[in-house]
Amino acid sequence: MSPEEARAAFRSGHSAPTAGWAPGHAQANLVSVPADWAYDMLLFCQRNPKPCPVLDVTDAGSWSTPLAPGADLRTDLPSYRVWEDGELVDEPTDVLGHWRGDLVSFLIGCSFTFEWSLAAAGVPLRHVEQGRNVAMYVTDRQCRAAGRLRGPLVVSMRPVPPRDLATAIRETAVLPAVHGAPVHCGDPGGLGIADLAEPDFGDPVDAEPDDIPVFWACGVTPQAAVMASRPPFAITHAPGRMFITDARDEQYRVA
C-alpha cells in the first residue's frame, strides 16, 4: 500500500496501528498546540532531540505539510487524541470539529520508520509478527524542561535476540531523525519500568526466551508533556497510529 492509499483509508475512517504500513516511507508523530505554546514546544523538542526529532513544523492554522503534499493533518491519521488542560477529552478518527485557526503542528520522527531497516537486516519485529501495536512505557527519566513544558521520557520496546543486538543498534544509530540508537538495553528497571506486560501505551508484546528488551526514545513523549504541563488545548495522534508521509526512510539516513 502506498502512503497516499494508506492516508485515503484513514480518511475514510479506518483505524489501525501503522507498524508495517507503506514500506520504505517515513512515519511521523503529531502534536498540535496553540500558537502561544508553539515556542515552548519547539524548545522542548530542541532540548530533547532523541524523543522529539522534528521533521516539520506548520504555520498557525495550516493542516498541510511538504512531507505529504495534498494530505490533510486533520483527517489523514488513523486516530487522534484531543486534550483540554492536560486531560484526554476525545479520541476521534478526524479532528475537523476540533480544529482551531491558531494551532501549530509538529511532525516528529517515529521509530516505525526504522523498522524496515531492521527487517531488511534480519532483526525480527515481534509486535509485527504478532499483529500488535508496539509497547510503550513512561520512564522515570525526566526530559529537559522548556518554558511551560516538562514531562518524562517515553520509550518504545522491541525484544531483540542477542545475536541481533549489535545489528539493531547499528541500523538505528544512522537514523537520528527517527530516534536513532536505543537509549537502554536489558533490565527495564533501569528505566523505572516495573512490568513489561503492562505498557502505558500500545500492546504487550511476547518475547522469545532469550530475547533482550531494547528501548528506543519515543515520540509519545510530547503527549506525556501535555499531560504533565496541562496546556489549555492540544491535539495529538493516538499512540502507534501515525501520520504516513511520502518521504522515503533512506533520506534520513546519515551514513
TrEMBL record:
InterPro entries: D-Glu_cyclase (IPR009906), Putative_hydro-lyase (IPR038021), UPF0317 (IPR016938). Its EC number is 4.2.1.-. It holds the Pfam family D-Glu_cyclase. This is Putative hydro-lyase JGB26_31500. It comes from Streptomyces flavofungini. PANTHER family: D-GLUTAMATE CYCLASE, MITOCHONDRIAL (PTHR32022:SF10). Belongs to the D-glutamate cyclase family. It is an enzyme of class 4 (lyase). Keywords: Lyase.
